[in-house]
Amino acid sequence: MKFYRSEIAFLIFLSLLVGAAAFSYQAHDAVLSQMSARQGAAAGLDSGLFAVRASLTLIAIGLLAGFFYFYPLIREQARERGELREMTVSLSEKSATFQQAALTDPLTGLQNRRYFDDALAQYMEEFARIERPLGIMIIDIDHFKSINDTHGHDVGDEVIKSLAKTVLEYTRYHDIAARIGGEEFAVVAPNLSMDELNRLANRLRLAVAELAMKIGNVRLRITVSIGVAIWDGKETTAKLYKRADSNLYQAKRGGRNRVCA
C-alpha cells in the first residue's frame, strides 16, 4: 500500500494523539488511586478527575474525527496529486516520444531532413567558434527509379534500408546520418579535411558496391554517387548544401558510382 508524505505526517499526528490519550489514561488511574487513598479529599479531586475525563473525551473525539473524516480526505487529495504527477510524467514521456518521431525517418530509423538541417546549423555555430573543418556528404542511389519500376516499391524500400544500415556502419559516432528524401541520404562529418572526407566517402561507396542484396527472389547490387563539400566558415547551411548537391550532380554526370568534391 502506497502512502504519500501528507498521509505519513497525519499518521504521525494520530500517533501523538494516541500517546497523549495513554498518558491521560494513566493520569486518570492515578487520580482514582488518590481518591481511594484520601477519602476525605474527594471533593478536591473531583475537579482533577473531571479535567482528565474531559481531555480523554476530546482526544477520543479527535482520534475518531481524524481517522474517519480527515484521513480519508487527505488520502483522496494525496491520491489525486499522485495521479496528476504520474499523468504529467506520462505526458512528458509521450511528448519526448512524439518529438523523436518527428525527427526520425520511419523507414530507416535514421534522422530526417528536419533534424539534419537543425544539426548542421548547430555544428556550424560551434565550428565557427573553434575554427575546425566541417564537411557534409550527400549520397544518392544510382538508377533507383528503375529498381522501383522493375521490382516494385517493397523491394525499393528494402534497398533503402540496406543502404541506411551501411551508412551507419561506415560513419563515426559523432557524425549525423540522415535520410533527407526518397533515395537520398546526407551525413554531417565534423573534424575532417577534404582528403579525409573524400576517403570516408569512397570507403562508403565501395562498401555499397560490394553489397549483395537478396530480397525475396530478387538479387540486387547497387551503387551510389556522393557529393562532398567542406564548409568555408562563412556560407549558410543552404549554400553549403547546394554546393554538395552540385557535386553530387557532377558525380551523376560523370558516370555515377563515384565521389565528387
Low-pLDDT parts are 40-44
The CATH class name of the largest domain reads: Alpha Beta
Alpha-carbon distance between the two ends: 67 Å
Order of helices and strands: HHHEHHEEHEEEHE
What's the mean pLDDT score?
81
Oligomer: single chain
Largest sheet: 5 strands, mixed
Number of domains: 2
Q: Roughly how many Å is the radius of gyration?
A: 38 Å
Q: In percent terms, what proportion of residues is strand? A: 5-15%
Q: Write out the strand line-up for the largest beta sheet, numbering strands in chain order.
A: 2-3-1-6-7
CATH architectural grouping of the largest domain: 2-Layer Sandwich
Structural class: alpha+beta
Number of helical stretches of at least 4 residues:
7
CATH superfamily of the largest domain: Reverse transcriptase/Diguanylate cyclase domain
Helix content: 55-70%
**How many E-type strands?**
7
What is the CATH fold-level name of the largest domain? Alpha-Beta Plaits
What is the overall shape? elongated
InterPro entries: Diguanylate_Cyclase, GGDEF_dom, Nucleotide_cyclase, Rev_trsase/Diguanyl_cyclase
Keywords: Membrane, Transmembrane, Transmembrane helix
Catalytic activity: 2 GTP = 3',3'-c-di-GMP + 2 diphosphate
Protein name: diguanylate cyclase
Structure in a nutshell:
The protein is α+β, with helices and mostly antiparallel strands. The protein has helices at 5-37, 42-102, 113-130, 144-151, 153-170, 194-209, 237-253; strands spanning 134-141, 176-181, 184-190, 213-215, 218-220, 224-230, 259-260. The chain folds into two domains: 5-102; 113-260, Alpha-Beta Plaits, CATH 3.30.70.
